[in-house]
Automatic annotation (TrEMBL):
NCBIfam families in the cross-refs: phage_chp_gp8
Identification of the protein by name: Phage gp6-like head-tail connector protein
Provenance organism: Paragemmobacter amnigenus
Lineage: Bacteria, Pseudomonadati, Pseudomonadota, Alphaproteobacteria, Rhodobacterales
């Protein structure tokens, strides 16, 4: 299974000014200066870490999921939530031939933690030997930062501030997230009960 972004979060959406305020940068902060670029990079890093830990996309954007096999014949859990739009499902053969499945053959079952692609009747499209399937989807809580759940937004600010304040620290090799961040994201984490590939 490979999940990749097909649309980046625009710089204008990032809460750079909020992070500057959190860090108390005051009048030294210039929204268009080098400091803003540094803050934006720390925000992106913090978002990536929290999204990886929770399985949630904070800002709405496009993703593409590639699978070599289905989890089940009629159901495929999706590895990111919340899914706002289910896009094209295409089966790619070993020879590279691409066949787009009829949209009426499958449906999205929304879920806050584990959305699923399900067959409307029968099974999901067969994946040929040596081939794979690509699923397009749009996932994320909101298009604007102001609409991201408050606890997740605060977790991003706290973690970005941690990255900023310790950017010159060689570290102690322990890594890990601060306890305050873990407490904020705890309810959003997905408990994965099933192992193996394809999900």
């Amino acid at each position: 299974m490979v999940l990749e972004e097909v649309g980046a979060v625009p710089d204008a959406v990032l809460p750079v000014a909020a992070l500057a305020g959190h860090l108390r940068l005051g009048t030294a902060f210039e929204p268009e200066g080098l400091q803003a670029g540094l803050l934006a990079s720390h925000l992106r890093a913090a978002m990536a870490a929290i999204e990886a830990r929770t399985g949630k996309a904070l800002i709405r954007r496009g993703f593409r999921l590639r699978l070599e096999r289905w989890r089940e014949a009629g159901v495929q859990p999706l590895p990111v939530a919340p899914v706002a739009v289910l896009g094209e499902v295409a089966v790619i053969g070993a020879d590279g031939a691409r066949v787009v499945a009829e949209a009426g053959r499958f449906a999205l079952v929304p879920d806050a933690h584990r959305p699923r692609l399900v067959a409307v009747a029968g099974a999901l499209p067969a994946i040929p030997a040596g081939g794979h399937v690509e699923i397009g989807l749009t996932a994320g809580f909101a298009a604007l930062w102001e609409d991201v759940p408050d606890d997740l937004a605060q977790a991003v600010l706290l973690l970005a501030a941690e990255f900023y304040e310790n950017r010159h620290d060689p570290g102690d090799g322990r890594g890990g997230m601060p306890a305050s961040v873990l407490a904020l994201i705890g309810r959003w984490r997905t408990v994965r009960l099933l192992g193996g590939g394809g999900a």
